[in-house]
Automatic annotation (TrEMBL):
Pathway: Lipid metabolism; fatty acid biosynthesis. Keywords: Acyltransferase, Cytoplasm, Fatty acid biosynthesis, Fatty acid metabolism, Lipid biosynthesis, Lipid metabolism, Multifunctional enzyme, Transferase. It is found in: Cytoplasm. Catalyzes the condensation reaction of fatty acid synthesis by the addition to an acyl acceptor of two carbons from malonyl-ACP. Catalyzes the first condensation reaction which initiates fatty acid synthesis and may therefore play a role in governing the total rate of fatty acid production. Possesses both acetoacetyl-ACP synthase and acetyl transacylase activities. Its substrate specificity determines the biosynthesis of branched-chain and/or straight-chain of fatty acids. The active site is at C113, H255, N285. It catalyses: malonyl-[ACP] + acetyl-CoA + H(+) = 3-oxobutanoyl-[ACP] + CO2 + CoA. It comes from the Bacteria. This is Beta-ketoacyl-[acyl-carrier-protein] synthase III. The gene is fabH. Its EC number is 2.3.1.180.
Length: 328
């Protein structure tokens, strides 16, 4: 039996902040609309010379320092992103190069906003096969380059950021320990949230301008409905599988997509608001980066304390969703 121990947490958000008031100058929107419908007040956006790997590099360095580890000790890099620097090489390979190391197995995992829980589960799989592995699980998203800045229904929702953890095996006495995880998807609902452009189903010719399909397109209301239903039901399934109930949960940390979704999931699970971590007002929806970014902040601020049972849950395009239990 392998114990999956998180050795370090890291996060990074770019310096540039875009407030709701700034957005009022770009599209026909208002701070009041964005705040009441989403809870978002501001989001971070990359500088012109930054890509996903640059942010991943920063959060990876923080996680390694937190773990007291040198990059050369890593055996695997698993990167969750739907906005990698390029199709080839993968973001994981570029992060490896930036860390000044080589030889590690490097792979990107694409599960949209569920990217972190999928990447973490991939890392647990590697650890089952290679218990001595030391794995960087890093997520990074540059969504500001994949939203249509003329579409007010999507561009106000997202932000750029990165989050990372270091996962190794350990003893039952060590913590934080990943206890269990469940993942799910339903490809029939894929068309409700898409970024088609750049994919092989679309034919492009050199010099052609890009169209709307290159950017996030979303049926917001449908996403909302499925997000609440899927996250709450997989959380209940995971708790039940572990002989637990929502009253055992000390902290619920959901994907930060929209405050109303976070609130609705908490209510459905009957977990009181004061146990639900939320930082969406500062970052917006940072997709795969949102959970490790929130985790890192929740640990540093003392919102998550030693001994806490923490329930993570995500939902994203695909549709994909998941839940993970971590014992601190
Ligand atoms: N500013 C002002 N008005 C707006 C804006 C805006 N930014 N965006 C939409 N509106 C208008 C609409 O045009 C509409 O106007 P109309 O009534 O005149 O037609 C009105 O506001 C209401 O629009 P709705 O879409 O019905 O608003 P709703 O309350 O559903 O909120 C929202 C929209 C915030 C997008 C919500 O549906 C939502 O949060 N959905 C989930 C989105 C999400 O989290 N996606 C990420 C999922 S995870 C991933 O993998 C990326």
């Amino acid at each position: 039996m392998i114990n999956f121990i998180i050795r370090g947490f890291g996060r990074y958000a770019p310096e540039k902040v875009l407030t709701n008031t700034d957005l009022e100058k770009i599209v026909d929107t208002s701070d009041e609309w964005i705040t009441t419908r989403t809870g978002i007040k501001e989001r971070h956006v990359v500088a012109d010379d930054q890509a996903a790997s640059d942010m991943a590099f920063e959060s990876a360095k923080m996680a390694l320092a937190d773990a007291g580890m040198d990059a050369s000790e890593l055996t695997h890099i698993v990167c969750g992103t739907f906005t990698p620097d390029s199709m080839i090489p993968s973001c994981a390979c570029i992060v490896q190069e930036k860390l000044g190391i080589s030889g590690q197995a490097c792979v990107d995992v694409q599960a949209a906003c569920s990217g972190f829980l999928y990447a973490l589960q991939t890392a647990r799989g590697y650890l089952m096969l290679e218990p001595d592995a030391k794995i960087l699980v890093v997520t990074s998203e540059v969504i500001s380059r994949r939203v249509n800045w003329e579409d007010r229904t999507t561009c106000v929702l997202f932000g750029d950021a990165s989050g990372a953890v270091i996962l190794t095996s350990g003893t039952e006495e060590e913590s934080p320990r990943v206890l269990d995880s469940m993942l799910a998807a339903d490809g029939k609902l894929g068309n409700l949230l898409t970024v088609h452009g750049g994919g092989s189903a679309y034919t492009y010719k050199l010099g052609e301008p890009v169209g709307e399909e290159f950017f996030v397109q979303m049926a917001g209301r449908d996403v909302f409905k499925h997000a609440v239903r899927s996250m709450s039901s997989i959380c209940n399934d995971l708790l039940e599988r572990n002989g637990l109930t929502t009253t055992d949960v000390d902290v619920l940390l959901p994907h930060q997509a929209n405050y109303r979704i976070i609130d609705a999931v908490g209510r459905k699970l009957e977990i009181p608001e004061e146990k639900v971590f939320c930082n969406i007002h500062k970052y917006g929806n940072t997709s795969a980066a949102s959970v490790p970014l929130a985790l890192s902040e929740a640990v540093e601020s003392g919102f998550i304390k030693d001994g806490d049972l923490v329930l993570l849950t995500t939902f994203g395009g695909g549709f994909t969703w998941g839940a993970t239990l971590v014992q601190f």
